[in-house]
Amino acid sequence: YSINGTTINKSTWTNKEVKVTAKLKVDIAGYTLVTKKNDGTWQETDNQTFGENGIMYVALTDGRNYGETQATANVTNIEKNAPSVNINLSATEVTTEGTITATVTQSDSESGINIGSCKWIYNTTAGNIGTNESSYTGTFTSVTQNLTLKSATVGTYYLHVLSADNAGNLKETIKGTITIKPTTSASPGSTTHMASEIPYSWE
């Protein structure tokens, strides 16, 4: 099993094409190794390239007749589906002194989540920022994790989550809008008066 000429373990997850090569342990005079992919036709080659999971069959031929299948190789390590992401916010509006909790759940039913490559950032960008890790500052330690979101600057904010699985598939998820409002100093129901408006007398 190899990817771009580099040998890999057949259980190593990938989202790239996998080349499977068969080798005879001993030469059999008058016979040639042939292979086929899934339900395809026999070919006089010792390898097949897979863009998705499948089976390679190996047989011998004398040039006229094809013998029974001598071996099979199962390709089960290709995954091209992006992770699933769910984000729940405790609120969508808060003051500059408050915080919002974002519960982020990431899952992947095939290769699994690569938590070390999952990142997040909280900013004012409404659109996609892409899947480059350098664009994110926060990290994850668990597939389900609570993030504390806070900003001292009034504005409209968004949570960007970069999710990665063990096959190398990446996905950006955006949650928002989150409105940050200014904190008012006066308490509800209170009245503020200027000193000149308050009548007084000297005694």
Describe the protein's architecture and organization.
This protein has 203 residues and is an all-beta fold. 0% of the residues lie in helices and 41% in strands. It has no helices and 15 strands. It has a 5-stranded mixed sheet with strand order 9-15-14-11-12, with no helix packed on it.
Concise description?
By secondary structure, the chain is an all-beta fold. Helices cover 0% and strands 41% of the residues.
Compile the SSE list and pairings.
Blueprint: E1 2-3, E2 6-7, E3 18-21, E4 32-37, E5 47-50, E6 54-61, E7 71-75, E8 84-89, E9 93-95, E10 100-107, E11 119-123, E12 138-139, E13 144-149, E14 155-164, E15 170-181
Parallel strand pairs: 9-15
Antiparallel strand pairs: 1-2, 3-5, 4-6, 6-7, 8-10, 10-13, 11-12, 11-14, 14-15
Low-confidence stretches: 190-196
**Largest beta sheet: what is the strand line-up?**
9-15-14-11-12
Element-by-element helix/strand order:
EEEEEEEEEEEEEEE
Number of helices: 0
Q: What percentage of residues falls in helices of 4 or more residues? A: under 10%
Please give the radius of gyration in angstroms.
Answer: 31 Å
Structural class: mainly beta
Straight-line N-to-C gap: 101 Å
Largest sheet, strands/sense/barrel: 5 strands, mixed
Total number of strands: 15
Mean pLDDT reading: 89
Approximately how much beta-strand content do the residues carry?
A: 35-45%
CA-based shape: rod-shaped
